[in-house]
Every structure is written in structure tokens, then in C-alpha cells.
Amino acid sequence: MTAKLLEETVTLGEQRLILPGYYSWEQFEALESLMADSPGLRITYFDGWIEFMTLGEDHEEIKSILAIFIALYFFEKGINFIPVGSATRRDKTKDVSFEPDESYYIGEKKEHPDLAIEVTMTSGSTNKLAKYLRLRIPEVWFWKNNQLSVYRLCEDNYEQLSRSELLPELDLELLVRCVLMPSRIEARREFLKGIQPQ
């Protein structure tokens, strides 16, 4: 009986579904309100396309660990920041509504966060950078296949960089290595050692 119960409580991984066809903003809002009480389900709107995404444990683990280390970096370096997590970014006039996995204002609040982070465990068919471009988010980081890619807004497009312009002293290889370490205690120790002045 116990073994059977354990089998039934296995968590699902990240899944995506894009509704075929074009939907108006009003149709999107109606769907969004119908799904308001569905925990772990995200709904994205972009140029008439609606995407549903469920969040698996692997996704949530990576995003949470990244957030811990980024906050630790801000604290250790004395950088004022406001973490706003996955707060919905939306603008009806720009035909866009989405939730980053993590996002931060650096310094003080502005119209939109300075930094957003996307964790991708499966491939999505919508262009996530295009969504961020609509709201002119200065820097977007993507975690995929245990690697971190940094994109910086330059005029009217994003360009990929080898390091963050917002946090130029942050060693991204160190960050990735620590996120992937099985022991959070050892990872914290290694990360703090790596960001201390030499």
C-alpha cells in the first residue's frame, strides 16, 4: 500500500503547450482568469499566441539555487537590489504578458527590472528574447543544459555576451559550478571563496 502511494505522488517535469491559432488580448485574459486557481501553471501571451507551461521540480530547484547565489553575491558585494521573482510583466499595447523565473531591480525600482533569468528544461517554441525586447529589459540570462547564457539589450536587439555588463565582476563559470554542486553547504563555501577579493 505504501509503495503504491509513493508511485502516485511522483512529480511531473516541465511541459509546454501552445494553443493553435490567434487569440485576442481579451480572450487571453478570460483564459487567464479561468486558470487563476491552477498552481504551478504559467500562461504567456505574445502576439496572439498563448502558451501554457507547467513547472517541474528540476526547473524550480535550479531557479531557486540561482536566486540564492545571486542574492548572496549582491549582499557580499554591497549591491542594493530588489528581488521581484516571477512577477508578471505585461503590456496590452505591446501584445505581451509573461513571467520570468527570477528578476531583479538593481539599485532602485524602475519601469521594469534590470535583470531577468529564464530557466529552460525543455525547448519552447516561442522566442523568449522577443518578449523581453518588447519591454526593453536590459539584461536576460538563460539557463539551459547546465549552462548560462547572457544577453544584453543593445539599441533594438539583444547580443550575447561572455559576461554580465550589470555584474561584470561575477564569475559566471563559478556560479554555474556552484549551482550544480550536490552539497549546498560546500557550494556556498566555494562561491564565497571565489567572490572574495584576492
For the secondary structure, the number of strands is 11
Estimate the mean pLDDT confidence.
Answer: 90
Assembly type: single chain
Give me the strand/helix succession.
HEHEEHEEEEEHEEEHH
- Number of helices, counting only DSSP H or I runs of 4 residues or more: 6
CATH architecture term: Alpha-Beta Complex
Ranges with pLDDT <50 over ≥5 residues? 1-7
Instruction: Tell me, briefly, the overall form.
Output: globular
Strand line-up across the major sheet: 4-7-8-9-10-11
Computed Rg: 18 Å
Look up the CATH topology. tt1808, chain A
Structural class: alpha+beta
The percent of residues in helical segments reads 25-40%
Q: How many domains would you count in the coordinates? A: 1
What is the rounded distance between the termini?
A: 57 Å
Which percent range describes the beta-strand content?
Answer: 25-35%
Outline the structure in words.
The protein is an alpha+beta fold and 198 residues long. The chain has helices at residues 2-8, 25-34, 57-77, 128-135, 172-180, 184-195; strands spanning 15-18, 41-46, 49-54, 81-83, 89-91, 96-98, 102-106, 115-120, 139-144, 147-154, 157-161. It has a single domain (56-195), classed as tt1808, chain A. It is built from six helices and eleven strands. It has a six-stranded mixed sheet with strand order 4-7-8-9-10-11. Strands 1-3-2-6-5 form a five-stranded antiparallel sheet, with helices on both faces. The longest helix is centred in the middle third of the chain and has 21 residues, at 57-77.
